[in-house]
Design goal:
The complex is a heterodimer of chains A (about 725) and B (about 170). Chain A has about 725 residues and is an alpha+beta fold. The longest helix of chain A has 28 residues, at about 315-345. The termini of chain B are far apart. Classes of the chains: A alpha+beta (about 725), B alpha+beta (about 170).
Chain lengths: ~725, ~170
């Protein structure tokens, strides 16, 4: 029987992309020089699982590349390779390459073999070079580091000295092949409640005995006097020496069930010089000499001892002793995290968006049905009417709760978008020679998945702008009396029914004069026009407008801010600029929480009801005949606060018979879209309400000037106006 | 009748079930498996820039469904909508997936079994009367039923709607 593996491809890709994201963020947090073992483990695990997956599915190119990567990470994990800036760069590039490869495979496109091969070569080169590096750097400079960083470095120092000697040809073969039996010291200190949790130390000790020769010592020091003793608590702890197991894995497995209920450390007494570094320390390497059974090991251990000696010669011996403990402790949480990472997301399940949409649809229908029932209930007379109405009120409350819960299913924290920025900021800052501190706040703010997908690109653009144009070069900043490191701040929060996302920097701010000059030179603004600050800042949203002095590959091509604004507008949001010369600038995006619901004003035209999104409405008013004038006998304009706005007669656009064609008998709704304002002529305003947006495209097609439809309380369909589209359509029909 | 297969269009079985409806003096039939529901006529919401035979849209349990007046589609004289006017909601397969739409007809008649062997090809009626959406003619109880290919009839309509609108977009851009 052959198993069709292709059915798992989707999950593999999805998980791999997520894993790469977490690998990237771990890489960015990795400190050069003093790597955190836990982080390296995380990165290693990602590479490993992608390698495993791709090998299973026969994506050999990915598997081969990840194998090289894994080798390098393993070297780093075991401390035989230092984390340096170039290596961290190679690792980040690997993430990109892996992502590209996965994407290529996913889309059935050929993999860019050249870039993969190049990077793989770099990786292997780096691995090959690591042998040369430690022996070149003698223990003397390494020991100097030990003094500077007494907490973590001594361990590395001792190891490296040991490694460099061990890799000398005389010692290495002897080491790997000798039949020396590994000896482990296990310190097992159960918490008092261990027994109550159903764990039996006796069973564990017996299992340990099955692994090899065991010497057990029980610690009785915490045993209370007989009258204080609780028979259900465990007061004993043990120190156990085991001979036999090749690595600590089987030992730890025995204590798996007791994890969290005990303090457990597993230490190798005779260090394996060529492999296990997580558990070995320089100090123990020295201790191992006494037990060394043959000459080859003796040689290596002597070298290790020498290393320890050189470390403790410069650093006080006390510095080396505490170092032994952290090294062991680090190994323990790393393992726990391996289990923990699964526990963390076990509270969620993958559900296809389609299913959620279906659920939303059904709930939307329920809300409408409930609204109809309520309307009926109002008219009802009779003995049970009152009770019926109170039940209806109950239903309404529950419905609202249900609707909110379903909405929340689609909500994701904005950190999904924010997470890409640390990497971007780092790369950009490096390329531009700037120093950037990227602050992310409000990451837990939730918003609709669809909104999130569409807000990513505009935000990328704004952050790029801030780094490229906003923040000055370090020397300029220092000259201005600002810290050399520029701050770019991304913040998100809920504000009413909206979400506000803010991108701010402490750079130079927008150059008002330059924007004005540029606008004047392009004839966008008359030479004598005076503009308010807001109007000036608004200019940067015009297509093709860029004040960047030179075009870089980062920004300055003048395609951008207009696209940003269009994207934001398409989402039913707004963007505002605030700028403080010399102090920085701030871009504030306000977005609706969800695309599924819109706050709308219903307007009546003839027998039809249309919904105008509230976000597009500036104000509504009744016209005096004197406010209207005709331009060239065709277009009608109204004067509105010193501006002349074209009037769009909705009944003409939608082909319905209005109550009256006289402008002063209806109402004008001043609305804006794409930065242009118009007056919509309608019969009447009906009311404001939240409406659920339904697609017209599913069964029909796109209609110019209409963004969707909704179902009103009486079950009728009402069209939702799309102002930018409507204005485009209207200007076409007038032009024609 | 009792042994008909679950798949009404199964050609091998030699028969299919067809829902027949009346339009003026003629009887038409559509594959029953395409029928989503039959409902009474209710007021529709007009949509702008639509072909004249697309009356508007209706709320069908939460989805917005366009309504086509078949009389107008076939250029028959217009009838008043009254209590017996019904809407048959059908689904078509188009390039973009399943689409639902409703057709307004004078009345629904019956569900009949039609043997594939009895279906006659539509005669050539000249270029004025397009016959590409007629699958064939079949005699049922002394009457002639026109079998409609709704994918062709409506699917094309909806496609033209979408494409003409996208042309509009290009012009506007």
């Amino acid at each position: 029987m052959t198993l069709d593996l292709t059915q798992f491809h989707g999950v593999f890709f999805e998980e791999s992309f997520e894993a790469l994201d977490s690998m990237e963020s771990a890489l960015l947090k990795l400190d050069v020089g003093a790597p955190d073992a836990e982080r390296i483990n995380t990165i290693f695990r990602v590479a490993h699982s992608i390698k495993g997956g791709s090998a299973t599915f026969g994506f050999t190119a990915i598997a081969s590349f990840t194998h090289s990567l894994e080798t390098m990470l393993d070297e780093m994990r075991s401390g035989r390779m230092h984390v340096t800036q170039p290596i961290s760069n190679i690792l980040l590039k690997s993430v990109d390459v892996m992502r590209a490869m996965l994407r290529a495979v996913q889309n059935n496109q050929p993999i860019d073999a050249q870039s993969v091969a190049d990077l793989q070569f770099d990786l292997e080169l780096a691995i090959a070079q690591k042998d040369a590096a430690p022996s070149a750097s003698t223990s003397a400079p390494a020991a100097a580091v030990a003094i500077a960083q007494p907490s973590a470095a001594p361990v590395a120092v001792a190891q490296h000295a040991a490694v460099s000697t061990a890799s000398s040809p005389a010692a290495a073969p002897g080491l790997t092949t000798t039949g020396e039996v590994p000896r482990w010291e296990i310190s097992f200190k159960p918490h008092q409640e261990l027994l109550a949790r159903g764990n039996d130390p006796l069973r564990m000790l017996r299992e340990l005995a099955a692994l090899g020769k065991v010497t057990t010592r029980a610690m009785l020091d915490s045993l209370p006097s007989l009258d204080e003793l609780d028979s259900r608590s465990c007061y004993l702890s043990w120190t156990i020496e085991v001979e036999g197991p090749q690595d600590e894995q089987p030992v730890r497995e025995i204590f798996d069930w007791a994890e969290g209920d005990c303090d457990l450390t597993v230490t190798r007494l005779n260090p394996p010089v060529a492999t296990g570094v997580e558990t070995s320390t320089g100090l123990e390497a020295a201790a191992g000499v006494a037990h060394a059974p043959n000459a080859a090991t003796e040689l290596a251990s002597a070298a290790a001892q020498e290393a320890t000696a050189s470390a403790s010669a410069t650093a006080p011996s006390a510095a080396a002793t505490p170092a032994a403990q952290p090294a062991v402790k680090e190994a323990a949480p790393a393992k726990q995290e391996g289990l923990g990472s699964n526990v963390g997301d076990s509270g969620s399940i993958r559900v296809s968006v389609e299913k959620i949409d279906e659920l939303m649809n059904t709930v939307g229908e329920l809300v409408i049905t409930q609204a109809m029932l309520s309307q009926l209930g109002q008219k009802l007379e009779g003995p049970d009417a009152e009770q019926f109405r109170s039940s209806l009120a109950n239903l309404e409350r529950n419905m609202r709760g249900l609707q909110e819960s379903v909405m929340r299913v689609r909500m994701l924290p904005i950190s999904f978008v924010f997470s890409r920025f640390p990497r971007m900021a780092r790369d950009l800052a490096q390329r531009l020679g700037k120093q950037i501190d990227l602050k992310l706040t409000g990451q837990e703010t939730e918003l609709d998945k669809t909104v999130m997908e569409k807000i990513g690109d505009p935000l990328v653009h704004l952050v790029r702008n801030s780094i490229d144009h906003g923040v000055e070069m370090p020397d300029v900043r220092v000259a201005k009396g600002k810290p050399a490191v520029g701050t770019v701040h991304l913040d998100a929060c809920h504000r009413g029914g909206n979400i506000a996302v803010e991108v701010s920097d402490d750079g130079a701010g927008l150059d008002k004069e330059r924007i004005l000059a540029k606008a004047r030179s392009r004839g966008l603004v008359g030479p004598n026009d005076t503009l308010t600050d807001e109007q000036v800042y608004d200019l940067v949203f015009l297509p093709g407008f860029s004040t960047a002095e030179k075009t870089t590959d980062v920004s300055g091509r003048g395609v951008g801010m207009d696209v940003v604004r269009r994207n934001v507008n398409e989402l039913g949001g707004k963007i505002e600029i605030k700028s403080f010369p010399g102090k920085g600038s701030k871009f504030l995006i306000t977005l609706p929480l969800t695309l599924a619901i819109v706050d709308g004003q219903s307007v009546a035209v003839g027998g039809e009801t249309y919904i105008v999104p509230l976000v597009s409405i500036v104000e509504s008013m009744q016209l005096k005949p004197t406010q209207v004038s005709r331009v060239a006998g065709r277009g009608e304009v109204l004067s509105f606060r010193g501006d002349y706005l074209p009037i769009i007669r909705l009944h003409e656009i939608f082909g319905v018979e209005p109550r009256s064609r006289a402008l002063h008998e209806g109402l004008i709704v001043v609305a804006e879209g794409d930065g242009r304002r118009v007056g919509l002529f309608v019969d009447d305003l009906l009311g404001q309400q939240q409406v659920v947006i339904k697609s017209l495209e599913t069964n029909y097609g796109r209609i110019e000037g209409v963004s969707g439809a909704t179902i009103l309380g009486d079950g009728c369909v009402s069209l939702i106006l799309d102002l930018p589209g409507l204005i485009r359509a209207a200007s076409m029909s007038y032009a024609a | 009748m009792t042994t008909h297969p679950t798949n009404g269009t199964d050609a091998a079985a030699g028969s299919q079930q067809v829902l027949t409806f009346v339009l003026g003096n003629e009887t038409y039939g559509v594959d029953i498996l395409r029928v989503q529901e039959i409902r009474g006529f209710s007021a529709v919401t007009k949509i702008p820039h639509a072909p004249s035979h697309v009356l508007g849209v209706l709320n069908l349990r939460g989805s917005i469904v366009p309504i086509v007046d078949l009389r107008m589609r076939f250029s028959l004289e217009r009838a008043e909508y009254n209590a017996v006017t019904v809407i048959i909601v059908l689904s078509v397969q188009s390039s973009t997936g399943r689409r639902d739409f409703g057709v307004v007809v004078d009345g629904v008649s019956d569900v009949v079994d039609v043997k594939t062997a009895e279906v006659r090809a539509a005669p050539e009626l000249g270029s004025a009367s397009a016959t590409e959406y007629i699958l064939g003619l079949v005699p049922v109880a002394e009457r002639m039923v026109v079998l409609l290919d709704i994918d062709c009839l409506i699917g094309n309509d909806l496609r033209t709607v979408s494409s003409s609108n996208s042309q509009l977009d290009h012009a506007a851009a």
